[in-house]
Design brief:
Blueprint lengths: L1 E6 L16 E5 L4 H12 L3 E6 L2 H10 L6 E6 L5 H15 L4 E4 L14 H29 L2 E6 L12 H21 L4 E8 L6 H11 L5 H12 L8 H12 L10 E4 L7
Parallel strand pairs: 2-3, 2-5, 3-4, 5-6, 6-7, 7-8
Antiparallel strand pairs: 1-4
Length: 276
């Protein structure tokens, strides 16, 4: 595990009180895409951040991009499939900031292919990252949250955790599991002041969209980008992929004190796709 710590930014002109000032948030998969957008959103509201991902160089880029925002930042390069590393990271962040108030379980991978083409190791890898990564991090932070009587856990699931879809059985299984885990942990911790919710995005303009394009190319589609655009136009009522900041806005609400009445929910944000 490699680590770096720095100030996110120095105080500037007087600004409205930040909703997360003095709180500390851990964000996994923070080096790009949705995780990076969530980190910016939380930092903008004054939270101290512990950023986690496997790529130390990308984490450093994210940390640099946070310059000028309030709070402090600790970057830890680790793999969420490593249970011991997750516990070590939480201990390090707790020592650095005093406590952990918010956990955003965003780290995830995608695999496309027919069910019959899935090897056992494909299922295992998806479960190791997408499910057990959530389990490892959640079990590491929960005791402290319960002891203090406050905590916010936000799991990034997927619409793939809410319905069936072709050619991604392993991914769907892992995200269905995250939705189920969210509900169960929420029930067990509601009386202790901890909320646990999941966000279920549809198509989001991130690197993961690249896997859809590669899948189209592997199927012999001449223009994968055009095929993706046509698919979005046909399946998503708003006619486009979501932006990462749209997911981050929902994550910010679920991470804030204002969401105290919401727990155990798996919230769909998909441009109307599942209501069409």
């Amino acid at each position: 595990m490699s680590a770096a710590t720095s100030a996110v930014g120095a105080p500037g002109a007087a600004q409205p009180a930040a909703t997360l000032a003095g709180m500390t948030a851990l964000v996994t998969g923070a080096s790009r895409g949705i995780g990076r957008a969530i980190a910016h959103s939380l930092a903008g509201q004054g939270a101290n951040l512990c950023l986690m991902a496997t790529d130390a160089a990308r984490l450093a880029e994210v940390e640099s991009s946070l310059a000028g925002l309030p709070g402090r930042c600790l970057s830890l390069a680790l793999d969420v499939t490593d249970r011991a590393a997750c516990r070590e990271a939480v201990a390090r962040a707790s020592a650095e900031f005093g406590r952990i108030d918010i956990l955003v379980n965003n780290a995830g991978i995608h695999h496309a292919g027919s069910f019959l083409s899935h090897e056992p190791e494909d299922f295992q890898r998806l479960l190791d990252v997408n499910l057990f990564g959530v389990i490892h991090m959640t079990q590491a932070v929960l005791p402290g949250m319960i002891e203090r009587g406050y905590g916010r856990i936000v799991n990034i699931a997927s619409t793939a955790g809410k319905w069936g879809s072709r050619n991604q059985a392993g991914y769907n299984v892992s995200k269905h599991a995250v939705v189920g885990l969210t509900r169960c942990v929420a029930l067990e911790t509601a009386a202790q002041g901890v909320t646990v919710n999941a966000i279920c995005p549809g198509f989001v303009d991130t690197d993961m969209m690249g896997s859809f394009r590669r899948d189209q190319a592997a199927r012999g589609v001449a223009d994968p980008a055009a095929a993706i655009e046509a698919m979005l136009a046909a399946r998503v009522p708003i006619g486009r992929a979501l932006r990462t900041d749209e997911i981050a806005g929902l994550a910010l609400y679920l991470a804030s004190p204002q969401s105290s009445g919401m727990t155990g929910q798996s919230i769909i944000i998909d441009g109307g796709m599942l209501t069409a």
